[in-house]
Amino acid sequence: MAVPLSKLTKIPRILIKTPTHQQRILRMNGLSAIESCTRTEGATGTLFLEDHMLLFVMEGMYTVRFGTEVHTVNKHEMVLIHKSIAFQYEKSGEPNFDYVLNYMMFFLKDELINEFMKLADYTPTSVARTPAPVSVHTIDDRLFSYLESLKPYFNEPERIRDGLVKVKLLELLFGIADRNDIFLSELAQIKRQERKSIKDVVDANITNPVTLHDLAYLSGRSLSSFKRDFKAIYNTSPLQWIRNRRLDKAQEMLIHSSLSVTEICFSTGFENVSHFSKVFKLRFGIPPSALKQPPKL
Questions:
Q1: Class at the top of the CATH hierarchy for domain 198-291
Q2: What pLDDT is attached to residue 238?
Q3: Of 11, 57, 55, 52, which is closest to residue 38 (Cα–Cα)?
Q4: Which of 11, 41, 218, 277 has the smallest number of Cβ neighbours within 10 A?
């Protein structure tokens, strides 16, 4: 997937901090859910997931692009997307219904999935395969009715008692798993991330705003194992190596492209222009603006 020339939106953090007027948020104890209802004929953007996400389309269509894959989520369908990945989206309302798009997003932390899998007492019946980062499923009438029943909670989030958000999220997962064995299997596979090549994982995410925890998760390792294995391969710390790779890429783009310093900052995995300028000058001795070529006449 081509990295966009603007800052990736990290969710749920950014959406919770700066919700739009079309969004209603339900959150408690690190758990969060968002309902959004808007009119759109094709809004686009790029998101980076800090938690696993379940998105249910009630009206309209939500398109997810990840790598070379394109997944279209239509009315009465849901999509499960794994955390620590960046994907492009397109939101489209239905022409016959005034371009209304209505969907619900639920963010699932690893701890919640682990608790659910223990409660579900699920035992895999087949050999685990590498889990797909994005998967689309149909919503049946019973699940759709349950989602509709959650809307009053979004109307008065301040009145929700402590722990109820967690109970509702667990109830939602049980409701899906009861009617969808494939979904239950996918949640189990999220728990058992297969070990992957550190080089492949880092190369694929070098320009994404990933943390070391993200890279460790994507490689199927604990954070301590990831750091140890990384140093054995590269003979340096991952933070230093990744920063230098990003700075080298930024230097190349500053010299050979017409992009602005801000665009290059965000498209090489940095999240703050001031920090980018500071570390760039420390590495190369000059600020990034010094490498910008004057426009050709």
A1: mainly alpha
A2: 95
A3: 57
A4: 41
